[in-house]
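Reminder to self: keep the SMILES exactly as supplied, no canonicalising. Ligand is adenosine-5'-triphosphate.
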Amino acid sequence: MDAPVAPPKVEVDASHRYGSLTVHEELKFRVNANEFVCICGPSGCGKTTLLDMLAGILVPSSGHVLIDGMSANPKKQSISFVFQEPSTFPWLTVAENVATGLKIKGVPAATIRSKVADIIGIVGLTGFEDYYPHQISGGMKQRVAIARAFATEADLVLMDEPFVSLDQPTREHMQREVLDIWRRMKRTVIFVTHNLEEAVYLADRVLILSAKPARIVAELPITLQHPRDPLSAEFTEIRSKCVRWLHATH
Ligand SMILES: Nc1ncnc2c1ncn2[C@@H]1O[C@H](COP(=O)(O)OP(=O)(O)OP(=O)(O)O)[C@@H](O)[C@H]1O
Ligand SMILES: [Mg+2]
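Structure tokens returned for the bound complex:
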């Protein structure tokens, strides 16, 4: 008899309506464990709605959203969310912010201290542990949010246009940092962006959604080695392919 096949990390086969507005129509895809998937699609097509379903905050009108073969449920799975705007707790220091998910899980204090120190080092905030969010820049706050998301043993890290408010050099720096953390910490990441260059730079696979009612119109695997060079011929070719698919959705 064949050994049982492990379910994919994420399996979506869902339709969703807000009242009479159909946002997703048989939206279907899978994500493997440790995969980095970028999702692109026209504004208002339902990307944030999809992340809400993956976080278990929203139940689809029909179909299912499964994580490790079980319905997405924030009480059962550990799912981290990084929002477009940096979201830090203003009354906690940098280190306390990063530690929140671990504290909720009841991780012993000594383990929390060493994990927090490690990840603060990875995101380049060593020396700022005792600062409060109002004492650091927007880019640094976003690094705190990313550190918090990866510090917890999250099953899934969901990121909703996390770098949209950053200037280009900071954005590029953060992209390299996220890739570095992802490679070291082995997490499954679903990352929404409007920026196709960002998607091709980061992802193992890019999913392009159509306008509402959204479905997947293209799935583009990206096998270029990291670090990727956005000026290389291969990169430009894949990016152009994504652009053509995205334009076709309008
Ligand atoms: N709670 C809600 N109640 C009713 N309609 C909603 C709700 N949330 C979102 N919508 C509608 O669902 C559609 C998809 O919204 P969503 O925020 O998921 O889009 P998006 O792809 O994330 O857009 P953007 O790229 O602009 O962030 C929009 O038409 C929006 O108005
Ligand atoms: Mg959105």
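Points to follow up:
DSSP finds seven helices and ten strands in the chain.
The first strand starts at residue 10 and ends at 18.
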